[in-house]
Amino acid sequence: MASSTADLVATIRCLDRIFGLHSPAPVIAALLRDIERSDSVFLDTHALYLSGRQEIVRAFDAPVRLHACYIDEGGTVETEKVAHPLLDHYQRNLPAYRHNLDRAIDAFARHDLRRICECSTRSAELAQGVIAKRHLEVLLERRRDFAADGIVVAHTGSLLGYLFIARPDPARMGELSSFFRGLGHQCRFAETGF
Fold first, then answer.
1. Can you list the domains of the chain with their CATH numbers?
2. For a Cys staple, 67 with which of 90, 124, 164, 175, CB 3.0–4.6 Å?
3. pLDDT tens digit sequence for 70-92
4. 73 within 8 A of 160, measured Cβ to Cβ
5. Which DSSP state fits 134?
């Protein structure tokens, strides 16, 4: 579930390795600030991160482990082209985003995995207004069938899928694979967290 930021950070880390350096997070953030809005893929902890300023507002030390089953709907999203429409969308829906953000901060602070998944789902629903995912509605409809705890999307990308607090058993993984294959996509399974 990478991004253009992941590509930039991978390059920085490769250069660090070649030259025997270690670029700390604030240095990486400063480098990214001059290039583009970025996500927090270079951090070693969950955090509230302002992508426009490359600024960590709050870090959460408790490890959060979730399991994802996701697909890539295909296509590309040019980050720079969607930046203004995305920010405009956030402004138009500021009360809903602010409420979800407050709930997410509280959920991370309490290490409440169920509420984290609920906030992720709400965020996915809100994001439909700017970079819509073709299959979000069917994922929402079938969520209970798969006992998924939430839905996750790449807000400036083409990935979407289910979140699980506990790793799905082999039978459930087979059902998920079949479901996504029926949508015309190969699913992937990943464990999230640090």
1. 1-61 (no CATH), 63-194 (3.30.70.890)
2. 164
3. 999 998 777 778 878 888 999 99
4. yes
5. T
